[in-house]
From TrEMBL:
This is Serine/threonine-protein kinase RIO1. It catalyses: L-seryl-[protein] + ATP = O-phospho-L-seryl-[protein] + ADP + H(+); ATP + H2O = ADP + phosphate + H(+); L-threonyl-[protein] + ATP = O-phospho-L-threonyl-[protein] + ADP + H(+). Mg(2+) binds at N210, D222. It comes from Staphylotrichum tortipilum. Belongs to the protein kinase superfamily. RIO-type Ser/Thr kinase family.
Length: 268
């Protein structure tokens, strides 16, 4: 999956001599001078040793696999990490302003004119929200470091660098698949409640695309747009999340509860 490495010296020199054109294009898309500097800093600080190809290329951000080689390679295995790099040169962020605008946490910084500032805010929001989830014991990538629009986090995947599938792509096996789907549904309702009650947050983009699955466990990701209770649209976003989740699990054959019942369970 991570065939093409962004080699260390490439990061340093701002060159990418990799022969694979599509990978080069992907890498170059976000790796401007400033981003390369930040990555170098992270390498120097020992957060990662090597940055690999993109796990995901999205509209607003790319996610890369990375590896940290241990000081003592005889005793310790390499540690996989994930780096989410928000794109700074886009206008999509205009659309996202409504998530930030209503939040007291970010009032001082929301500057409509400045794209780069917006992107930084966005990454900061994801970092802080991940910290909250992690502190509340909700399975998610542990946030490790943030610098401007670059976020280093725990890699959710195996030791070889294969990321866990999104819930959408999860293939459950066994003769109790219906039971497993039911349990995952119940697990997710518990997570949503905890997110609301303990973290004071509504995910606001919750669906089978922003949940990873491994070994009967759901992992919540992509919380940059998550909002606090006091956001003027938070309950609207919560209803949307509830609907998405219900739609998905119904398609898996789960006998789901009514949206209103779930809403009360989460908020009560
Ligand atoms: P986007 O804003 O592009 O939707 P996401 O945070 O949802 O960004 O990440 C995009 C994809 O990258 C996810 O669907 C998942 O497959 C992968 N991914 C994100 N974070 C991690 C992680 N910590 N570990 C492994 N894979 C990840
Ligand atoms: Mn996503």
């Amino acid at each position: 999956k991570h065939a093409a490495k962004i080699r260390l010296d490439n990061v340093k020199q701002g060159q990418d001599r990799d022969k694979d054109k599509s990978d080069r294009a992907t890498a170059e898309l976000v790796l401007d001078q400033r981003t390369r500097m930040i990555l170098l800093q992270m390498i120097n600080r020992g957060l990662v040793s090597e940055i690999h190809g993109a796990i995901s290329t999205g509209k607003e951000a790319n996610v890369y696999g990375a590896v940290l080689y241990p000081d003592n390679p005889d005793a310790d295995e390499p540690i996989q990490r994930a780096i989410k790099i928000y794109k700074t040169a886009i206008l999509v962020f205009k659309d996202r302003e409504r998530y930030i605008a209503g939040e007291h946490r970010f009032k001082a910084g929301s500057d409509k004119g400045n794209n780069r500032k917006m992107v930084k805010l966005w990454a900061e929001k994801e970092f802080r929200n991940l910290r909250r989830l992690h502190a509340a014991g909700i399975a998610c990538p542990e946030p490790l470091m943030l610098k401007l629009h670059v976020l280093v986090m725990e890699f959710l995947g195996d030791k070889r660098g294969y990321a866990y599938p999104r819930l959408r792509d999860a293939r459950l096996a066994g003769d109790d698949v219906d039971d497993q789907w039911h349990h995952l549904y119940v697990q997710l309702l518990g997570i949503m409640r905890r997110l609301y009650q303990v973290c004071n947050l509504v995910h606001a983009d919750l669906s089978e695309y922003n949940i990873l699955y491994h070994d009967k466990q759901l992992y919540i990701i992509d919380v940059s747009q998550s909002v606090e209770h006091d956001h003027p649209h938070s309950l609207e976003f919560l209803r949307m999340d509830i609907k998405n989740v219900g739609d998905f699990f119904r398609r898996q054959g789960v006998d789901t509860l009514q949206d209103r019942t779930i809403f009360n369970f989460i908020t009560a």
